[in-house]
Each structure stands twice: as structure tokens, then as C-alpha cells.
Amino acid sequence: MWTSGAHFSDIGEIICRTDADLPKHKGLTGFIVDMKAPGVEIRPLRQMTGGASFNEVFFTEVRVRDDHRLGDVNNGWNVALTTLMNERAAIGGGSGGDSVLTRVFGMVRHYGLDKDLIVRNKLADLVIRYRVASYNNQRALDKIRSGQTPGPEMSIAKMALTDNQLRLGAFLSEVLGPRLQADTGEWGTYAWNQLVLGTPGLRIAGGSDEVMRNIVGERVLGLPKDTGIDSKSSFRDLQK
User: Fold this and answer.
1) What PANTHER family does the entry give (predicted)?
2) N or C: which end of the chain has fewer CB within 10 A?
3) For residues 90 and 44, what is the distance between their CA atoms, to the nearest angstrom?
4) Domain residue spans in the chain?
5) What is d(CA 6, CA 52) in angstroms, rounded to the nearest whole number?
6) What is the DSSP annotation of the chain?
């Protein structure tokens, strides 16, 4: 579920359970899989934007050669973490917002709202939030350039992007009103529809908001893990 761009992809990454006698995070192995292989079924999920960028992917008796393995056998959790952190770096890395805010400024000026004190105050709040996010992104990019694997700071970046985009969507909805939903051809109105309708999907993409908060809580703030999470018993025993 939620495999972005699978219907355009030639290859994908799959994390498989390869040893049920190991704890749940240790009995996994990563592979590269041919998305055109027999048994791979991709079903695009229609979104409220009208597009379909997410997909369900089903694997039925799909066989993958061992030379398509990523890393060592049963070390797939580290492969998954590396992939996820880089995905969050790609998603959250755009949270600086300079290009989108430039367009927002142009829209506000076009409708003569640049002198409205309430609008200016809300715009200033957005600028501050996007700028703070960009500083966090810079810290993460410096870490990547030094050869380190992106860490929990990318979870912060991903949450910041989602929150900023939701706030931006609320601002646009308030300023544009019905013009956001009715395509009249008027400049700078309906084009924002895709951002407003597409942003809720960011709360899932690259890891849900709840997962991101758990990562930050445990790995940044040092809070205890959720009770009831068994990371020592074998996966087979967890299924009983």
C-alpha cells in the first residue's frame, strides 16, 4: 500500500520475512524486484486530487534471484531504515518553501492583499516556519555530505513539511475561498487546488505523522518506547 510511482517504475525494493525464528526486526531481507515480473500486480489508488500517485502492489508467487539481494540475509531492517531516512530526506528536503512562498507572495499582491495586516501577519508566520525547517534541513544535508546516514532529524523535516503545507493550504483556502475550487480561468486561483487537496497525503508518505512522532520521541527526546512492543521474541511466537 502507498507505493509512490509504482505504476511508472521498472524496479522496486521489497523487504521480505526470511527467518521467522528471529525477532521481528532481525529476520528481514531486502531485495530489488522487477516490477514487470510475473505475479507483480500494481493497482493505482485514485486520490481526491483526481490523480493517482500512490499504488497498492501485490506479489503472487514472485521469485527474486539472490543476486538481487540488498545487503546481508536477515539485515533487511537496516536496508529499510536507510531507504526510509533517504526518502524522508527527499520529502522533507523541500520544506524550505522559497519557491512556493514566492508564488504565494505574487498571488497576494495580485489580489491587492499585500497591505492587509492580518494577511501579512499570517504570511510572516508561514515564512518563519518554512525558514526554521530549512535550517533543520541544512543540518541534515551536512550530515549526509560527511558520509553519515540521515537520522531522526529527517523525521523532524518530514513533519515540518507536512505541517507547513497544511498551514499553507489553510491560508490559501481562507484567502481564495470558492475561487480555489471553481476553475473560472482566473489567474492564481484554481492552480492551488492540487496543493490543498494533495497535502493530506503527506501525512502518510514516507511514514505517517504518528510514526514520525514516535521516532522523535524515542530517539531525540529519549522517551520510553510504547509498552507492549516485543522486540526480543521470535516473529513466529508473536503470531501465536
Assistant:
1) ACYL-COA DEHYDROGENASE, ACYL-COA DEHYDROGENASE FADE34
2) C
3) 22
4) 6-79, 82-219
5) 10
6) ---TTGGG-SEEEEEEE--TTSBTTTSEEEEEEETTSTTEEEEEE--TTS---EEEEEESS----GGGEESSTT-HHHHHHHHHHHHHHHHHTTTT-HHHHHHHHHHHHHTT-TT-HHHHHHHHHHHHHHHHHHHHHHHHHHHHHTTPPP-THHHHHHHHHHHHHHHHHHHHHHHHGGGGTS----TTTGGGHHHHHHGGGGGTTTS-HHHHHHHHHHHTS-PPPPTT--SSSBHHHHT-
Strands 69-70 and 28-34 come out as antiparallel
pLDDT digits (tens, 9 = 90+) for 7-21: 999 999 999 999 999
**CATH architecture for residues 6-79:** Beta Barrel (2.40)
Place of cell 497535502: 199
Residue tagged 470558492 (cell numbers): 178
Distance CA 43, CA 55 (A): 5
Task: List the strands of the sheet with 69-70, edge to edge.
Answer: 11-17, 28-34, 69-70
pTM above 0.90?
Answer: no
The span from the CA of 231 to the CA of 79, in Å, is: 18
On whether the CB atoms of residues 81 and 229 are closer than 8 A, the answer is no
The correct CATH number of 82-219 out of 3.90.550.10, 1.20.140.10, 2.60.120.10, 1.10.540.10 is 1.20.140.10
Residue 99 identity:
S
CA-CA distance, 41 to 56, in Å (whole number)?
8
CB 60 within 8 A of CB 39: yes
